[in-house]
């Protein structure tokens, strides 16, 4: 299992717009082999921004890499620069290989 996360610093007062953008976008993730799950996470508020993270679970790091070079990826990110005023800088990517997974009953 591979977890891909992007952390976003969203300008104060732009949270609703950021969430709308993500809710309304067509991610194309279901078209890609190895995709397991996606979540948009809202984190703590700071003086000038609110922290968000996109959290995507993949069957493997190779499946994630294939996504980043796919037509589905290009389509999903086609309008990414249109709302720059919402962001306080670029997203920060973090990738994790799962070494232990526990599941509830």
Automatic annotation (TrEMBL):
Molecular function via GO: monooxygenase activity
Q: Where in the numbering of this chain does the ABM domain appear?
A: 2-96
Instruction: Give one Pfam family, short name only.
Output: ABM
The reply on keyword Lipid biosynthesis is no
Gene3D superfamilies membership: 3.30.70.100
Keyword annotations from UniProtKB, A to Z: Monooxygenase, Oxidoreductase
Query: PROSITE patterns this protein is in?
Result: ABM
Say which domain of life the source belongs to.
Bacteria
What's this protein's name?
Heme-degrading monooxygenase HmoA
